[in-house]
Amino acid sequence: MPAKKKSAPDRILLTGGAGFIGSNLALEIERRWPSARVTIVDDFRSGDFRNLTGFRGDVVAKNAVDYAPRATFDIVFHLASITDTTVHDQRLQVHDNVEGFRAVLGLAPRVVYASSAATYGITDERMSETTPPRPANVYAFSKVVLDNIAREHGAIGVRYFNVYGPREAHKKAAASMIYQLAVQMRSGRRPRVFKHGEQKRDFVYVKDVVTGTLLAAERGRPGVYNIGSGLARSFNDIIAALNSALGLSLDPDYFDCPYDFYQTFTEADLAKAQRELGYEPRFDLETGIRDYAKWLGWAAARAGREVDAKK
Ligand SMILES: NC(=O)c1ccc[n+]([C@@H]2O[C@H](COP(=O)([O-])OP(=O)(O)OC[C@H]3O[C@@H](n4cnc5c(N)ncnc54)[C@H](O)[C@@H]3O)[C@@H](O)[C@H]2O)c1
Hints:
- This protein is of the alpha/beta class.
- It is about 35% helix and about 15% strand.
- The protein contains nine helices and 13 strands.
- The chain has helices at about 20-30, 90-105, 140-155, 175-185, 205-220, 235-245, 270-275, 285-295, 300-305, and strands at about 10-15, 35-40, 60, 75-80, 110-115, 155-160, 160-165, 190-195, 200, 205, 225, 235, 255.
- Helix 1 packs across helix 5 (about 205-220) and helix 2 packs parallel to helix 3 (about 140-155).
- It is globular.
- The protein binds nicotinamide-adenine-dinucleotide.
- Nicotinamide-adenine-dinucleotide binds near residues 47 and 65.
C-alpha cells in the first residue's frame, strides 16, 4: 500500500533546476502547488535559462557545493550533477557531485535526490534496488557515494533510467539517443547506431520521471526507487517509432561500438516503486516519442492526432 500523501510543501529547494529533468520538475511543481515558493540553485555549467521560461520562482546561480542559505526548506529536490558521463576528471566528478549533495542534506526534513541506473553497471539482468552497485565510470561511482551517504540521512533516491523528452537539447552530445537520432533523421540523414541496433535500454519519458519524483516526495520512505518505463527497448525500436512519429522511412546506418564498457542493457524492476509509491509509467516508447515529436513541432500530421497517453 502506498503511504499517505503529505500536505503541499511551502518552501522548496531544487538544485539543477535549469537542467533537463530539473526544469520539467520546476514547472510541474509550480503548476501543482501554485503557492509554493521555489528556489533553484544551478551554476549553469550544463543547464540553460531557456528551459525555465514561465518559471515564477528564485534562481541562485551557484555551485551547490557552496550553497549555504540561512533559511531552511520543507523539501529539497537535489538534481544538480555533472551529467556528461564522458567527463573522466575523477576529482571533479566526485567532488562536485558528492559535496553538492552533502551541502543540501540537512536543509529540509525531506530530501529527494537523483540517483542513476548507471550505478548498476554492465549486466544482462533486470535491475532491482537490491542489485549490488557495479559502477563502470566515475559518474556512476559518484552516484553510488550519494546512495551511501543518503542512507545515513534518511534521504529518498529516485534512480532514473534513460530519460528523454522536452528541454534536453542543451545537453548536446549528452542528450538522449532519442533526441540525437531525431535530429539526424529530421535533417534527412540515416540514423547512426552501434551494430546492429539490438542494444536494449529502459527509455523513460520525462513526464513519467517528474511524476515518479513527486510521488517519491509525497509517499517515499528512506531508500532508493527505480524510476523507469519497466521495459527494455532496442535502438531499432526507437528508429521505427521515430520514423512513424516524424513521417519518415530512413534505414539505420550501423557502425562498430568504440567503447570497452557500454551499457547494452538496462531495464528497471518497478515493483518497489509500484508498491510503495503507486508509480505507473503512462508513456510507452511509441506514445512518449509521439508526444515528444509534437512538443518539438516535428510530428508528422498523421502521427500527431494519435498522441494520447494510456490514461
Ligand atoms: N537524463 C537522464 O537520463 C538521467 C539518468 C539518470 C540520472 N540522471 C540524473 O538526473 C539529474 C538531472 O539530470 P539531467 O538529465 O536533467 O541533466 P542536466 O545536465 O540537464 O541537469 C543538471 C543540472 O545541474 C546543474 N549542475 C551541475 N552541477 C552543479 C553543481 N555542482 N551545482 C549547481 N548546479 C549544478 C547543471 O548546470 C544542470 O542545469 C542528474 O542528477 C543526473 O545525474 C539523469
